[in-house]
Design goal:
alpha+beta; four-stranded antiparallel β-sheet
Length: 194
Amino acid sequence: MKAARGFTLIEVMTALLVLSLLALMSYRGLGAVLDAREHVKLETDKWRHVAAFFSRFERDVELAAPRPVRTPDGVAPAWLGTPPASAAATLEFSRFASADGVDTARRIGYRLNDKHEIELWLWPGLDVAPDARPARYPVLAGVKTFELQYLNPALVWVNTWPSAPTDQPIPRAVRLRIVLSTNEEIVRVFVLQS
């Protein structure tokens, strides 16, 4: 009778060791792929929100109207850019209705709040009633810095608008600089219809 030949204990243990090493490497590789995928998804979402904010801001400033508004305190300028340290909106302006008819002419504003979000302020109409408060909507989160500058008729960038009594109702352009909480800095310039 011939003896049946099989694997020795050392051969079986070596095969199990090789298979366990392959499984461990596969698991770590899959973990790295999943981590990279999650990172790419978060970055994509962040930049999609930034692009949506800039698109909204561009549409709003393109519709800027040179119309002053009546307020309980008197008349406010058509375009009012205040320093970021104040409690009021950093930027507040009158805006025409869009051509597609989905929104109305109204007073709007942009401001960085305490939660590091840029807020959109929407008043019910152009003229501000005594008790009217703007509706506030966060439009971009994770912002450390929100700075605006305005191009005056002498082609000089200024930090407030109106900067002089002889200024036009709205500036020639607005420069927007934001710094995200992840330290990316973005600067955009928007030309206005003046």
